[in-house]
Amino acid sequence: MISSIVGRYLLKRELLTAGQLETALVEQRKVRAKLGLIAVAEGLMTQDETEKVHKLQAVTDKRFGDIAVEKEYLTREDVEMLLNKQENAYLAFAQVLENHSLMTMEELEQCMSELAEDYNLTLLDIEDLKSDDIDRILPLFMPVGCDKYLNIAGSALRMLTRRIDTEIFVEKAFITDRHIADNGAVQTVEGEPGFSSGILGKGNSLLSAVSAFDSKEYTEVNEESMNAAGELLNCLNSFYARNLNKGGAYIKLRSPEYSAEIDGAAGEEMMVMPVYIQGERMDLIISAGCEIKMEMSK
């Protein structure tokens, strides 16, 4: 998630092209961040210091960490900590940018500071983003006072990353009583706590998500593809319900309703969170304690 959030920001700033971003997102899954890059990210070494160590590596049969300790840039404890961070998605993304000479770690960290300023985030918020942990990232995109939606949204996002795309990303959620859409599915979950949720789209925007979920290429919005949207929604809610049932709560899912032609959806209070899957927007909507109704096209 973090790579797509940062990558989209760099794309908006015209610091990356769409092709460069796509390449970076694919390649980051195959690389591990190097210790030098992580050391710069952690503020333990400068870019110049890492380059000096790399030059020494070229003429000596020694590891980066050993040379850095000898030069007193790092301690053994620092090296151990850096080794534990090599699987981090943000750092892997940064490594790919550096491998392609698109951006150094120091330049990326400067962009992260600018991102924080542009989106009114604190340094702690940025650390939450870099963690690539949905439970830490999601609250940054929730409306104030909407903790009641946090667990449901978090469960849905975790399932989406597992079943569909690890590089989904979200935009700031908002509260409304009506949301305009062209198609989608809604479902009511009975029990304590009861809630309603839905996935809505405009035009063909839901097709990427349902195609990936159903392992079948849907090319048009029709009853078949929206039935798949209903199945996807049921999967998201079932995942959440199973976890609640394990804790002793009673949860029952009604059959999802779906339609290829709607004007939108309405509810007494709904949280709408835009979720981007393979570049296409899908709106996740959740209402606690009241039903969401689709408004059918006339």
What does this structure look like?
By secondary structure, the chain is of the alpha+beta class. The protein has helices spanning 2-12, 18-27, 35-41, 47-57, 64-70, 76-83, 89-99, 105-118, 123-130, 134-137, 150-163, 207-214, 223-246; strands at residues 169-170, 174-180, 183-191, 195-201, 251-253, 257-259, 262-277, 280-288, 293-296. Strands 1, 2, 3, 4, 5, 6, 7, 8 and 9 form a nine-stranded antiparallel sheet that branches. Helix 3 runs antiparallel to helix 4 (47-57). The longest helix is centred in the C-terminal third of the chain and has 24 residues, at 223-246. The protein is elongated, with a radius of gyration of 22 Å. It starts with a helix and ends with a strand. The model has no long low-confidence stretch (mean pLDDT 90).
